[in-house]
Design goal:
The protein is of the alpha/beta class. The chain is 34% helix and 28% strand. Strands 3, 6, 7, 8, 9, 10 and 11 form a seven-stranded mixed sheet that branches. Helix 6 links the parallel strand 7 and strand 8. Helix 3 crosses helix 4 (117-130) and helix 3 (102-112) runs parallel beside helix 5. It is globular, with a radius of gyration of 18 Å. The structure holds adenosine-5'-diphosphate (ADP) and magnesium ion. The site of adenosine-5'-diphosphate has 12 residues, from strand 1, strand 2 and helix 1.
Length: 228
């Protein structure tokens, strides 16, 4: 059974009476342990796809199964649980809480998951240390470089041990060298068995994934295996 299985996904936006078909019968399957890039130009529907994969939005039609569960059948409470526990989100703009420290930002999803405070702290410190941020626990996001902020965001995304890491343009706000470092981290996490779905408009960034699928005019190409 695939970890993620999407069948004939359609997404239509209606604005001012105009219909726009953004996803046009997309089939997409991801097996556990894969590192897949979804590559497409601006406006091709990548974020729309990410929102559906991440259970932040629902398709107009089509079926989506995550870990064998049909997403359309789930209650909001179960969806919230999936978003917190099963999917680790990484965004272009990091989306860290500005008034909270690095450590607090990474502890937060564990707090929502109901872990005791000492356990939240232990796990958050462990992952931050691995990400090379041992001396930044008490810093605030604005006191860090972009690359460091993204490493905090990656720590926050993986600390709950999610089934899928879902990244939307994770290097979009970073310079080339820092972006390459983030891709190295993704490769390490993937080698440890983590499933990664990364969305990007940048072919060079996509080449770090093991499989690339292209999205254009609402259609998705079959994956090509990258030689990365
Ligand atoms: P990408 O992330 O590839 O740049 P998006 O998924 O953000 O593309 O957008 C794809 C298309 O869908 C764009 O034409 C955009 O204007 C449209 N779109 C995205 N979100 C909405 C929305 N909430 N309402 C109406 N149109 C939308
Ligand atoms: Mg986008």
């Amino acid at each position: 059974m695939a970890l993620l299985d999407m069948k004939q996904i359609v997404k239509i936006y209606v604005t001012g009476g105009e219909e726009q078909v953004v996803l046009d019968h997309v089939d997409f399957t991801v097996e556990e342990g894969e590192f897949v890039a979804i590559l497409g130009p601006s406006g091709s529907g990548k974020s729309t796809m990410m929102n559906i994969i991440g259970c932040l939005d629902v398709p107009t039609s089509g079926e989506y199964y995550l870990n064998g569960r049909k997403i359309a059948d789930l209650e909001e409470k179960e969806l919230a649980h999936i978003r917190n526990k099963e999917i680790g989100f990484i965004f272009q703009s990091f989306q860290l809480l500005k008034r909270n420290t690095v450590l607090e930002n990474v502890m937060l999803p564990l707090m929502y998951a109901g872990l005791p405070r000492h356990e939240q702290e232990r796990r958050a410190k462990e992952i931050l240390t691995r990400m090379g941020l041992k001396d930044k626990f008490d810093f605030f996001p604005h006191q860090l470089s972009g690359g460091q902020q993204q490493r905090v965001a990656i720590s926050r995304a993986v600390v709950t041990q999610p089934s899928i890491l879902l990244a939307d343009e994770p290097t979009g706000a970073l310079d080339q060298r820092t972006g390459a470092e983030v891709m190295e981290l993704f490769n390490e996490l993937n080698q440890e068995g983590r499933t990664i779905i990364m969305i990007t408009h940048d072919e060079k960034i996509a080449a770090h994934a093991k499989r690339i699928v292209k999205i254009l005019d609402g259609k998705m190409s079959k994956g090509v295996v990258s030689d990365a």
